[in-house]
Every structure is written in structure tokens, then in C-alpha cells.
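=== RUN LOG ===
request id: a7f3
mode: sequence -> structure
chains: 1
length: 224
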Amino acid sequence: FELPSDSFKYLRWCDIEDHDVRGNQLHCPRVREAGPSEEELFFRGEEHTLKKRKRVTDTEKWQKKLQENWENCAELNLSFQDLGDLYQVENFKRILRRLIRVEKLWLVDNSLTDLSAIRLPRCRELNVNKNHFTSFKQLPKIPQIQHLSLAENNIMTLSGISDLRHAPLESLVLKRNPCEFQERYRQLVFSSLPNLKVLDGIPKLPEDCSPPDIRFFFKMCTIL
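=== RESULT ===
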């Protein structure tokens, strides 16, 4: 039998009427677009949820944009959003573009592949574990990043990691990426990122410092 909450189960928080909750007041909002198609709802016997779907006017769209208020979010968890279709991903990126003040952001397990067009100017902590990134070039622009976690992606090489060289990056997690098995992996990462203090949860060790280039000594002349 129908429960009182059934008519709301495919709605996002900002689609529910008569409340004044704004996006910057939520830490883990569900932002995925609406649920199954009308045909699928009919075959499920859930056509009663259709009465909540109506044409949205421009005024209502503007009111919803103000209610989302992503521009004032400082800490946000948008993990596990189940972005199964292209229009879901596009709406997700629309929200990311509005996060101009976010400082801590979690985007875990969203099947993300490329956020290079996104800029997060104030982000200090970013967690994009369990996505489908294959290169550092696919990360968003994060000039103020201090803590970055990229565990369980598919980053093959360390090419492009130097793009983070001028950021104040202190800790980086690359566990369970193919690049972790690259020869002299830790030395290469620390030499590329001079501000880095911790890699994969382990502080920088003396052996992580690259030895002097031996070719330099062959060019020297020793006078006895």
C-alpha cells in the first residue's frame, strides 16, 4: 500500500514545496536529476508519483537556483550520486561550476572521467576516490589545493602531475592506481611536487629525495 512518503521519493530536496532549506546548509545533498521515466513508473504501478511532475516556469527556475545557493557552500559531500545518464552528468557539472567558495569537497564513486573544465578556486581538500580518471590533466583547476585524494582511479603515469607544482599541496593519495607501480614512484612524485609532505599516508622519507644527477659530475674537472 502507498506510504505517505511515496510521492516524494523521486524528488530532490529543492523540489519539495514549502521549506526554506538552502544548499549551503546541507553537507550531503542528493542532487541527481529526477527518477524513472513516466513509462517505467506506469509499469511499476507508481503512476501516482507523476502528479508531482509539472512544467516549471522561468520564475520557479530562478527561485530554485537561489534556493540551491551552491555559491555559498564551504563544505560539501556529493558522493555516490549514481550518475547513470549524460544529462545527469551535465547537471552535476552545472552544480560544480557554481562552487566558487567551496573549501572541502567529496566526489567519491561518481564514475567521473573529466572535470578539466571545472575551476574550484578556494578548494583546499578534494576527494575524488573511486572514479574513472586516467590522467592528472582531467582534474579540475584547484590552485589552492592542500589535500588531494585520487585512490582507486586509473591513472597510468605521472605525466601531468607537475601541473600541481605551484599549488600548496601537502598530502596526496594515489593508492590503487597503475602509476603506483612505476619505478622510483615516490622519488618522482616528491621531485615534481616540492611542497608535498605526505604521499599515500606516509611522510616524506630521506630515501624519497632524488639523488644528484650523476651526469653532472662527469662534466666537472677535478684539480689536484
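=== NOTES ===
Residues 10-205 form a domain with the Leucine-rich repeat, LRR (right-handed beta-alpha superhelix) fold (CATH 3.80.10.10).
The CA atoms of residues 194 and 207 lie 15 Å apart.
=== END ===
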